[in-house]
Amino acid sequence: MGLRRFGRLVKWVGGNGRRPFSTSSSSSCDEMMVQQIASGKSLNLYSAINQALHIALETDPRAYVFGEDVSFGGVFRCTTGLADRFGKQRVFNTPLCEQGIVGFGIGLAAMGNRAVAEIQFADYIFPAFDQIVNEAAKFRYRSGNQFNCGGLTIRSPYGAVGHGGHYHSQSPEAFFCHAPGIKVVIPRSPRQAKGLLLSCIRDPNPVVFFEPKWLYRLSVEEVPEHDYMLPLSEAEEFILENWNCGTQIIREGNDITLVGWGAQLSIMEHACKDAEKEGISCELIDLQTLLPWDKDTVEASVRKTGRLLISHEAPVTGGFGAEISASIVERCFLRLEAPVARVCGLDTPFPLVFEPFYMPNKNKILDAIKSTVNY
């Protein structure tokens, strides 16, 4: 199972910026996988993020972590132990003022530092919206590249959690995908979260990094303990069973392309398994980076399958799935065998007791797969 889970990480980049997998032979590839797994240990998602923050602070004396309650670990314990190890001058609490947190981070990053700002819940990122969209995103552009705040990373838990209601369950990623000048990244697993977060912190652009709170403790896998990064703006394409060393696809699907990100990927994986039992071959793509997103990978897949389904937790109207749909229709119109399908949240505030009806679950996705394939 460890090897099987490890195979899902297709576009892997080590600390030296190179993929560690050889394309020569399956035996040498298996050897490398065993070595990588042996050097890691089983972690859940919040522990992997904590490990990434430890590495970021340890490897760069200019790095700082700050936000509401971060000095004692934060609500989800992602910053546990950081203040004790690196001191309260580098890991510290802020006032309950999201606009101030991001504004301070912009100034800190503009002085050449690595500022990792935590917004306690993505639902409360909106008071900082002006700072992110009008300041951070435009900082480099307005000066003609004379100055920038590229060292700013804004971390925030997003999405459903099972009991969060309308103020602790939202998925606001589409708002920020409308702002050129920032990157928007969403991991789906512990190994991916660690590698992507380190890439974001070291990226020369400001990044909004949304963490799926539903998976903080639920998602567990083998995570290498060393320092490594995963490439931004490249999708990860996979289906569940087999992995061929040196390829970008774990198992090819021929009937329909599925695209998602974050916590929704685990739901889509189960739908793919059930669709396979009915003879439908699904290709599943995790975008990882939403801004800028990997259009080429999605386009190549849709040109092969002729069908596309997008799923996300955010409301369907104006969700990022609409941008993917429009772009792929423009690029692949003559290759599409059916209308692009979207399985998303409803156009209502996020409900509490009615959360199971709101969420795009496995059965909704499976029905949309069959409807699209049989169109």
From TrEMBL:
GO molecular function: branched-chain 2-oxo acid dehydrogenase activity
Record field: catalytic activity: N(6)-[(R)-lipoyl]-L-lysyl-[protein] + 3-methyl-2-oxobutanoate + H(+) = N(6)-[(R)-S(8)-2-methylpropanoyldihydrolipoyl]-L-lysyl-[protein] + CO2
Pfam families: Transket_pyr, Transketolase_C
Keywords: Mitochondrion, Oxidoreductase, Transit peptide
Enzyme Commission number(s): 1.2.4.4
Subcellular location: Mitochondrion matrix
A GO CC annotation given for this chain: mitochondrial matrix
Keyword Oxidoreductase found: yes
Keyword Oxidoreductase attributed: yes
Matching InterPro entries: THDP-binding (IPR029061), Transketo_C/PFOR_II (IPR009014), Transketolase-like_Pyr-bd (IPR005475), Transketolase_C (IPR033248)
Enzyme superclass (EC): oxidoreductase
Gene3D superfamilies: 3.40.50.920, 3.40.50.970
Start and end residues of each Transketolase-like pyrimidine-binding domain: 43-218
GO biological process: one example: branched-chain amino acid catabolic process
Cofactor(s) listed: thiamine diphosphate
SMART domains: Transket_pyr
Entry superkingdom: Eukaryota
SUPFAM superfamilies from the UniProt entry: Thiamin diphosphate-binding fold (THDP-binding), TK C-terminal domain-like
Subunit annotation: Heterotetramer of alpha and beta chains.
Protein known as: 3-methyl-2-oxobutanoate dehydrogenase (2-methylpropanoyl-transferring)
Species this chain originates from: Prunus persica (Peach)
Classification of source organism: Eukaryota, Viridiplantae, Streptophyta, Embryophyta, Tracheophyta
